[in-house]
Amino acid sequence: MTNISNFIAPAEIAEDLRYLKQLGKSFPSIAAASTEIINLEAILNLPKGTEHFISDLHGEYEAFLHVLKNASGNIKRKVNDIFGTTMREAEQKELCTLIYYPQEKLEIVKDTESDLNDWYMITLHKLVRVCQNVSSKYTRSKVRKALPEDFSYIIQELLHESNAEPNKQEYLNRIITTIIETGRADDFIIELCQLIQRLSIDQLHIVGDIYDRGPGAHIIMEALRHYHHYDIQWGNHDINWIGAAAGNQACIANVLRISFRYGNMQTLEDGYGINLLPLATFAMETYGDDPCERFKPVINNQRIDEKTQRLLALMHKAILVMQLKIEAQIIDRHPEYDMADRKLLHLIDFKTGKFCLNGQEYEMFDTHFPTVNPEHPYELTPAEADILNKLCHSFKSSDKLKKHINCLFAHGSMYTVCNGNLLFHASLPLTADGQLKEVYVNGKMVKGKALMDAVDYQARAAFNHEESAENRMYAKDFLWYLWCGKDSPLFDKDKMATFESYFIKDESLKKEQKGYYYTYRNEEKVCDMILDEFNVIGPHRHIVNGHVPVRAVTKGESPMKANGKMIVIDGGFAKAYHEKTGIAGYTLVFHSRGLQLVQHEPFTSTKEAIERGTDIVSTDLLVELSSHRVLVQDTDLGRELRLQIQDLKKLLIAYRNGFIKEREKKA
C-alpha cells in the first residue's frame, strides 16, 4: 500500500498551514478528509458530461428551445438504443414528444387514451429506464441536486433499483402504482421528463448572437437565466444590445433599425417594453409622403398587415437617418477609430441627387432627407434629439433588459477556454502576414488574448459606476465601435456598408472586405498560434467560432477548417439565412466518446412538434472520436479535482503529524 506521506514532505505542510487550517473547517477530521478524497477519486473516473455548443440563435426561440429539449437529437438516439427492438418507430416518436413537451402532450393523451391508468403504468416504466440511462454518467450526489423537491426520494428509489432483481420488482411496481392512485402521475411525468432533458446536457455553450432578426431573443435569455449550467461568448449583435442598454444612442438606433428591417417588434415591445410611440408619431409626420420602398420589412413567415408594414418602413427610415448622424458624432470624438470614411451624408449632392465619392458620381435609390441640413448634415434636429433621449430612457429603464444584460455579464465574456476548446464568436484581428494585430484600446496597443481581455473590460466598464465618468463615456462609445469598427474582434471588416446598401445603386460600393483572420483561419499553423496564445492545452484542441454562416448545402462549404483545428458552427439558425445556407444551424456535441457536429434541418413549429411528433431532422457529422472514453480526469474539472485531492492529502498529513488538531463533531 502506498503511503501519501512518501509524496508530500512535512515542510510543504508547514508552508501551506494557513490555507490548510481554513480547509480544515470544511473537513474537520481525518475521516472527513479521507471520505472526500475517496469521493473525488471516484468522480475522476466517471465519463465526462456532455457539452453542447450552439451559435447565432438570432431570436429563433422555438428552434432553440426544441434543440435544448431534444439535446440535439441525443434523447431520440437513447430512446432508440433502449427500445429499438421492443417499440415501433411511431411509439418511440410518441415517447420522445412526451419527453420534450410533457405538459402539452399529456393533454392530448388524456383526450384520446381509453385506458389512462394502463398508459400511465407503461409510460412511467419507460421514462424511468430513459432517466436511468441519462443519469448513469453522473454521481448520485449530482443527480440528487438536480431532482425536483417534491419527488426527490421517489425518483432516487426508481433510478437506483432494478426490475431485474426479483425482490425489488414488486416494490418498484408498487411505487409507480401508488403515484397513479394518488393522482400525481401527471406531475410526476412532467418532472421526470424535465429531469431527462436536464441530464442530457451537462453544459451549454452559446457562441454568440442571441439577439436580432428572430422574434424571441428575450425568450431565449429568460430560458438561459433559469438554465442549470451555461456560458455565453458575446457576439456582435449581443454587444449591440449591451450598448443600447448602456444608453449608447448609435447602438439603440442600430437595434431599432434591425428590428424594423425584420419586422421584429416582439422583443422590443413585448419583451422589454420599449416605448416606440414618439418615434412612430415622428416618422408618420416627417416621412408620411415618402414611399420608403427600400425600408419595407423582410417578412419571414410572419403575419404583418400592410398598415403595420407601412409604419415599420417609415420608422425604419427615420431611425436610420438618426443613426447616420449619431455615428458621425462618435467618429468625430474618436479619431483613433480611423472611421472618417464612414461619414457619408456630406457627400450627397442634394441639387443633383447624386452621391459623390473620390470625384465620381453614383446614382441613388432615394434622395428624400427632410431632416438633413446640407450645410450641417450630422446635426440632429430638435425633434430627433428629443426622440433619441426618450428612447435612451426607455432602454435604460427596462427592468427585464437590465436582468438580461446582467445575465450576459454574469455568464458571458469575449472568449472561453473549456476542455481544450477555445470559443469566441467572430474573429481575432490578424496582420497581412498572419500575425496577431495590435489594436488601440483606451490608450494601449494590445493584441491576441490581451485584446480580448481589454475588450471584455471595456464592455463592463460602461456599466461600472466605480469608473470615472470619462472612462464610462469612452467605454460606452467603444461598445458601438465593437459593433462595426474595422479592427473589432466582433466585426473585422474594412467597413459596414449600411449607407451604401440602403441608398447607392452601384453594387461595387457595398462590398465589405473581411479581415485577414478569415483567410488565415484555414491554416493549421495559424490556428495553433492562436491556441497557444490563449494557453489552450491538450492533444485534441480546437477553435470554435460562429458569426459567418456556413453555406453547407448551397455552396458545399465545410464547417471544418485547418485540418479540424477550426470549427465554424453558424449554419444559419435564423430563418433569414435558411436560403443562403440550405440548412438551419449546427450543434457541436462533445461527449465522452468524442466530438460530433449535428446538422439541423429547419424547425416547423412547437405546435406541430406537439401535435404530430414532428422533430428537427438532424444529421450527425463525425468530427473526432476518441480512442478511449473521455473521463472527468481528462477535463478541466479533472485538473481542479486533482488539485483539491492534493490539498486534502496535505491536510491528512497535517492531522497525522499534529500540525492541525482534529475537531470533534458537535453533539
Q: Could you characterize what this model shows?
A:
- The chain is built from 28 helices and 17 strands.
- With 667 residues, the protein is of the alpha/beta class.
- The protein has a seven-stranded mixed β-sheet with strand order 7-3-2-1-15-16-17.
- A hairpin with a 2-residue loop joins strand 15 (586-591) and strand 16.
- The chain is globular, with a radius of gyration of 29 Å.
Please compute the radius of gyration using only Cα atoms.
29 Å
Using the alpha-carbon principal axes, give the shape: globular
SS summary, helix count: 28
Mean pLDDT: 90
Low-confidence stretches: none
Spatial order of strands in the largest sheet: 7-3-2-1-15-16-17
Task: Estimate what percentage of residues fall within beta strands.
Answer: 5-15%
The helix content, as a percent range, equals 40-55%
Oligomer type:
single chain
Strand count, sense and barrel status of the largest sheet are: 7 strands, mixed
DSSP strand count: 17
How many angstroms separate the termini? 35 Å
Structural class computed from helices and strand pairing = alpha/beta
